[in-house]
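Bug #2210: token dump truncated for NAD(P)H:quinone oxidoreductase, type IV?
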Amino acid sequence: MGILDLFRKDNKRSDSTMGNVKLAVIYYSSTGTNYQMAKWAEEGAKLAGAEVKLVKVPELAPEAAIESNPAWKAHMDATKDVPEVTLDDLEWADAYIFSMPTRFGNLPGQMKQFLDTTGGLWFKGKLINKVVSGMSSANNPHGGQEATVKNLYTTMMHWGAIIAAPGYTDPVTFASGGNPYGTSVTVDQDGNMQEDVQDAVKHQAKRTVTIASWVKQGQQ
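Reproduced locally. Full output below:
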């Protein structure tokens, strides 16, 4: 029996408890790529039986910058009804999936600013043992996607969270570009995704929910 067979066996064994998991999918997206990835994560987690909140981090860019980019402006208008994430969402959830574009191999300022507001929850121990997974995008295959996800995980280690990276637990990881840290995608200048990552995102969401269910069982 191989590692994938073992994982799938454990996956089936935990299905009955996965409905108890509460997941927050938290994203930042300027023109829509990471919003789409977040939507796929939401869908995958719901199929796994989780209760899911899809929320975005607040936009910090000046209005003039947004207005100067038609795609950015159009996406802002199209997603104006998506709720913004709050600290209560972090306390509510058992697990988080973060999705964001890379900024010079690091988190975008919008995501970093939100994470910097979590000190109170961290101090009270409210973020310990949360299960976390990350996803990212860039404009070229080596544009910093892996570094961005790993930088997210550095913060999660300070939280005492449990990182649920996809690794190579399913063949979809190879088909989507092979990033073991978290699903990532390359986007061309017209905003088109260059890899087919939908199944990989859904697998990552199910894996996150599955691991969160194991953690919850262990805490009972």
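Output looks complete on our side. The chain has a mean pLDDT of 91. Marking as cannot-reproduce; reopen if the truncation happens again.
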